[in-house]
């Protein structure tokens, strides 16, 4: 299906597993147990969702990733879809649906509610019917499910409430109609997400800024990637003392900024930008020093 024929609000539609989606899951450096917990929550629904529908506390198939920007939420969600698809591939392919929540809000009273309802009641069930397993990714879910208790009465609060109501109803109906569907939602502001939506999540996992140990691992990974392209950088990538030193200068940054800072070391001298094999430890130290 081309982008021109994608349903309203859907910005990506993929069949998994796919070689094009390899990489993010393995490259993510997160605290121990994070990936296992996420994969377990997804697989339980993808494989056992239909059997669990009769339970009083049946899963909604909703996984919520909450944390500051740059902590890898979207990359984790995309990687999770591929990792889960690989695990269930013997029983059929998985459809990955990427939804843009910002495509739905409207200044016209009731339009948001109707658009959200159509997504959950028509579009997602239709897409889920194509393959045995479905994973839906919604970034910045707070745009769809605003916390009603704190919604501003200056910005069309009736429609805000109705849209959130539509999300809640949609989640309940998806559970009944598509028990093998997993919905992974991300948010930078978990306090902005409606409480009732959070209560339906099977797993709410917080992503945090990396600690010193994780930062050092990210530095090691970044340098190893550079050395893969420019072999002369191998000794820098293998210098454990240098990695530890650089990690201290990067304390407090998110994983994305850590990787970009290491990459920025290639830009400090024009000769290095032209030939990254000339990168030195001093270049890396300069790039990672806090600015005054």
TrEMBL record:
It holds the Pfam family AAA. Transmembrane segments: none annotated. Keywords: ATP-binding, Nucleotide-binding. The keyword ATP-binding applies. SUPFAM superfamilies: P-loop containing nucleoside triphosphate hydrolases. Residues 59-211 form the AAA+ ATPase domain. PANTHER family: PACHYTENE CHECKPOINT PROTEIN 2, PACHYTENE CHECKPOINT PROTEIN 2 HOMOLOG. Belongs to the AAA ATPase family. This is AAA family ATPase. It comes from Amycolatopsis rhabdoformis.
């Amino acid at each position: 299906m081309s982008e021109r024929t994608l349903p309203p609000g859907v910005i990506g539609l993929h069949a998994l597993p796919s070689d094009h989606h390899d990489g993010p899951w393995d490259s993510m450096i997160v605290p121990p147990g994070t990936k296992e917990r996420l994969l377990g929550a997804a697989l339980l629904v993808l494989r056992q969702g239909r059997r669990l529908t009769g339970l009083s506390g049946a899963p909604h198939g909703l996984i919520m990733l909450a944390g500051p920007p740059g902590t890898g939420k979207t990359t984790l969600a995309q990687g999770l879809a591929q990792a889960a698809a690989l695990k269930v591939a013997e029983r059929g392919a998985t459809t990955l649906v990427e939804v843009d929540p910002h495509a739905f809000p409207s200044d016209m009273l009731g339009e948001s509610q109707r658009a959200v309802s159509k997504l959950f009641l028509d579009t997602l069930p239709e897409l889920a019917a194509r393959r045995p397993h479905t994973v839906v990714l919604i970034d910045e879910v707070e745009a769809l499910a605003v916390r009603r208790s704190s919604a501003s009465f200056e910005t069309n609060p009736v429609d805000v409430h109705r849209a959130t109501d539509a999300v809640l109803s949609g989640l309940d109906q998806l559970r009944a109609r598509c028990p093998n569907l997993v919905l992974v939602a991300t948010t930078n502001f978990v306090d902005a997400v409606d409480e009732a939506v959070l209560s339906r999540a099977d797993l709410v996992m917080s992503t945090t800024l990396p600690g010193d140990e994780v930062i050092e691992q990210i530095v090691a990974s970044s340098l190893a990637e550079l050395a893969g392209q420019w072999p002369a950088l191998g000794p820098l990538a293998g210098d454990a003392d240098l990695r530890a030193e650089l990690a201290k200068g990067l304390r407090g940054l998110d994983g994305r900024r850590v990787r970009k800072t290491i990459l920025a070391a290639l830009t400090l001298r024009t000769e290095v930008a032209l030939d990254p094999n000339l990168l030195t430890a001093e270049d890396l130290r300069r790039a990672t020093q806090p600015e005054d």
